[in-house]
Write a structure and sequence with these properties.
about 725 residues, Immunoglobulin-like, Methylamine Dehydrogenase, Chain H, 4 helices, about 40% strand, elongated
């Protein structure tokens, strides 16, 4: 006898999740009585019991309501149904007594229970019988029930192992037979009126904002388990939310739309409803309710089928996100903001993507904590943003493409910062960004005033200026050569004899010497224009020159795949001393040099055109230290043609993550050893890969750890993205 409970409408339904698979207590004793007969039968040969089919018959109708025409595998809720198993002996010997067990599995809810058992008192060779049990459906819920039959499950007959495959149905293919498909053995219990089964929806189909693909449509699968056909006009969808699992649900007041596929679902057939999540409308509700990224929320979607005459179902069906007993952030806690701000969780940029290669420069973070950014195809506007992505000011340069910003002196008392920015028109600007003096101290956002201090004409620039550690010098590379100025704008060096200079130079403070690349060579010059030394790199230098934190080694990569480590302290009159070089067998596109310990070795993370990131370790103080790629990322972590330097997150004297992008707009976070993709928690799911795909070219990722660690990255889709890195700090 099935145990039962009552649903919302007061009707009895099957006990949920029972799993009570018992046996007839006296079966073993009964078998013992026939053991002598069984032994004699076995001596003549071996039986092979096969369950070949399942049949259904309504033996008593449980409802006086008007009944529609039904198929042989359909019944009305409340009917008594006889379930028969077709069992035959395909062996060469007779079978003794054995039991047959019957179970069900409701396909939508995955609820299971035992129906009952029958006993077969012997089966001759070739004989077929139909043992049966009666199923009282009044204790069940409307749904699609897969019936499972198992003959002699405890093996009393002693069949050979090769003959056991066909003892149950459904089953995989046995030797010489086809598989018995589970969908062929289902009993559909219909409730009079409009009804649907439990809704099947993917657990992982959770809305996320930009970090990973956005789920804009939920696919809800269900069966029509009513006695009337349904179209999309017969389905009503309501949405609710709550921020506390013990609290009640409130209406979202957002009109979710639903499209039913196929256009008509007849009784007993499967259908899919595509529920469209309107994030703009949901976002408006959340804004009014004061919900933000840090707030937990649970969303409930209720689907109610209606008959054509407006009669609703007694059993509305629910989808709960992220799960019935879970709360989660509606917005990804990793995704902080975009500039300009996207509306809700817009899956594509407003106005569409801009022209190819629109990303010209990376954003920068100043000592004042502000973010400086040059967006758009022409990159001719300089914006200052606060840490929340709010615009403080913008400054236009009439079509002159800007370089990334470098920073001079910062006055924390006056709250002013000196900015250096170059342009494609050949001008170097020195600007001062200062907090507006007349505003109230509590004003939000804080207001700033930007003024021009001085400017110089040096020739077209495409790379960021370089500022000395003591902030007294600014060096720029241009199409005309190398130029150095002091903080007042006075010229300290003009070096034009080697032609155009590639990339930003390196300024060595203790010697006032500058390293720069021109053509296939790298030079070190003094401020008196003396060439201290030269290195022939053998091919074009493809990376910015980078000095280690101690300014004792200068690193750079080339088109032919060579990575160089050069002694930065070679005295005048001597050759530049190449400490080490290594062939990475692919053009070098970018490098980042960090140290986890002031006295430790340099860790050099290098990106190459073949889509790999490599880590090299080099100790400048150890003459025997080798410069070699000690670890290479696994093949499954390979990206398509990495065009920028990796960004390295260092926290508490240890590399926590290496962030890299491909030219296709793939952003990934790799472990310190480059052997795994790092994950974060999003929408209640643990270890979701830290992965973002803009689909457009992206700039060099910039890590800022001055306050809360964040990642800034500009994309050719026209947006600056900010991501929270705090979850990666503990990796």
């Amino acid at each position: 006898m099935l145990s039962s409970r009552r649903d919302e409408a007061g009707d009895p339904v099957a006990r949920r999740g029972s799993k009570r698979i018992g046996w007839v207590a006296g079966l073993a004793l009964l078998c013992a009585l026939f053991v002598g007969v069984g032994a004699l039968a076995q001596a003549a040969g071996k039986p092979d019991i096969a369950v070949t089919d399942i049949e259904f018959e309504v033996i008593a109708q449980g409802s006086g309501a008007t009944r529609p025409a039904l198929t042989e595998s359909q019944a009305i809720l409340g009917d008594a149904v006889r379930v028969r198993a077709v069992v035959q002996n395909d062996g060469d010997g007779p079978a003794g007594v054995f039991g047959v067990e019957f179970y069900f599995l409701e396909v939508s809810s995955q609820e299971t229970d035992r129906i009952g058992s029958a006993t077969v008192f012997g089966l001759a060779v070739g004989q077929q019988l139909k043992p049966a049990v009666n199923l009282d459906t009044s204790g069940l819920a409307p749904g699609v029930y897969q019936i499972v039959v198992k003959a002699d499950p405890e093996g009393f007959l002693g069949e050979d192992g090769s003959n056991l495959c066909n003892n149950e149905i459904p089953r995989a293919a046995c030797l010489g037979e086809e598989a018995k498909v589970a969908s062929d053995y289902v009993l559909t219990l219909l409730r009079v009126g409009p009804n649907i089964s439990d809704v099947e929806t993917a657990v992982g189909a959770l809305p996320k904002c930009r970090m990973g693909p956005l789920t804009r449509r939920l696919t809800a699968g269900f069966y029509n388990v009513g006695t009337v056909s349904l179209t999309r006009r017969n389905l009503k969808v309501d949405s609710f939310y709550r921020t506390d699992l013990t609290g009640s649900f409130a209406s979202l007041s957002a009109n979710l739309t639903v499209a039913l596929i196929p256009s008509e679902s007849k009784p007993g057939t499967h259908a899919e409803a595509f529920i469209t999540l309107d994030y703009d409308k949901l976002d408006t509700v959340f804004e009014k309710r004061g919900l933000r990224q840090s707030n937990d929320i649970q969303i409930k979607i209720v689907i109610t089928p209606f008959a054509d005459d407006g009669t609703p179902s007694a059993l509305p069906r629910e989808i709960v996100l992220p799960a019935k007993r879970e709360l989660s952030s509606f917005f990804s806690p990793v995704d902080l903001w975009t500039f300009p701000q996207q509306t809700g969780c817009a899956p594509s940029p407003q106005g569409g993507a801009v022209a190819e290669n629109a990303v010209k420069v990376e954003p920068t973070v100043g000592p004042d904590g502000l973010i400086y950014y040059m967006p758009g195809q022409n990159a001719d506007r300089l914006y200052a943003l606060n840490s929340r992505g709010e615009e403080l000011w913008e400054r236009a340069y009439s079509g002159e493409q800007l370089t990334s910003v470098a920073f001079g002196r910062y006055d924390d008392v006056a709250e002013s910062t000196v900015l250096y920015v170059g342009t494609s028109a050949g001008r170097l600007y020195a600007l001062k960004n200062s907090r507006a003096p007349e505003q109230e101290s509590t004003a939000t956002p804080v207001k700033y005033v930007v003024t021009e201090i001085w400017k110089a004409v040096v020739g077209a620039m495409s790379s960021r200026p370089t500022v000395s550690a003591d902030k007294t010098r600014v060096a720029v590379a241009s199409a005309n050569g190398l130029f150095v100025f002091d903080e007042t704008g006075a010229s300290k060096l003009e070096f034009t004899s080697k032609g155009a200079v590639n990339g930003p130079p390196v300024y060595i403070d203790r010697t006032h010497e500058i390293w720069f690349a021109a053509g296939n060579s790298v030079y070190k010059v003094a401020e008196d224009k003396t060439i201290v030394c030269t290195i022939d790199a053998g091919s074009a230098v493809t990376t910015p020159l980078e000095a280690n934190p101690a300014q004792s080694v200068v690193y750079f990569g080339t088109l032919r795949g060579l990575l160089f480590a050069v002694d930065a302290a070679a005295p005048k009159g001597q050759e530049c001393k190449e400490k080490r070089s290594v062939n990475l067998n692919s053009p070098v596109r970018g490098l980042s040099v960090v140290r986890e310990d002031a006295e430790g070795p340099d860790l050099v993370y290098v990106s190459t055109d073949d889509g790999y990131v490599r880590r090299l370790s080099f100790d400048p103080s150890d003459s025997s230290s080798a410069l070699a790629a000690e670890e290479v990322s696994a093949p499954e972590l390979k990206l398509i043609s990495i065009k920028t330097a990796p960004a390295v997150l260092v926290a508490e004297s240890r590399v926590r993550a290496v962030l890299v992008v491909s030219w296709l707009g793939e952003l990934r976070a790799l472990s310190r050893n480059l052997d795994e993709l790092l994950g974060v928690e999003i929408w209640g799911n643990f270890d979701v890969p830290f992965a973002f795909d803009s689909g457009q070219e992206m700039s060099l990722p910039v890590v800022n750890t001055e306050r809360d660690p964040i990642l800034l990255i500009a994309s050719a889709d026209g947006y600056l993205y900010a991501f929270d890195l705090s979850q990666l700090v503990g990796k």
